[in-house]
Every structure is written in structure tokens, then in C-alpha cells.
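So, who can interpret the following?
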Amino acid sequence: MVERLDVGATLDSLPLWRSAEEDRPAIRRALRFPDFNAAFGFMTRVALRADKADHHPEWSNVYDRVEIVLTTHDAGGVTARDVDLANFIDQVAADMGGR
């Protein structure tokens, strides 16, 4: 099993992320892109990386907005896998005009 991390400490290293919900340990980020094409392109890049890592985000997309929640379900909270994916998401979002 993967080791759970403290959400507060995790958020210290991920300044663009927030605690997802009070009733479960997860992190979230809301992003806005220039248009639907950029948002969908961002999601495609993240999906390819997530599938390769076998670690999939909970997310939704409405036009230019993408909402993402990361947690490791089988560990019951946030793990290094979430931190790795969050860092990748931050990098791709910056490259694609996400804010």
C-alpha cells in the first residue's frame, strides 16, 4: 500500500491547489483556459499521463473550465502519486494558458 500524506503539508508544496472537501482527504484545483479547445487539449495531455501511471483524476469540464480532484482511493487519501500528478498538471496548465 502507498503511504498517505498529510493534506495540509501537501498543500504547502502545491500553492495552486486547495483541500477538496472536509469529509475526505483530497486536493483540488479549478482551471480556466482561453477556450474549449485549450481545455480539452489540456485534459488529453493529462489523461495520457494519468493512464500511463494508472492513476486517474476525478474531473469535469464545462467549456473553458476544468475542475480536478486528486486522491488515491486505495490508500484512502493523498499520496505521492497525487503530488506527482498535480505537479504535472501545473506544468501542462502553465504551458497551455491555464489559470
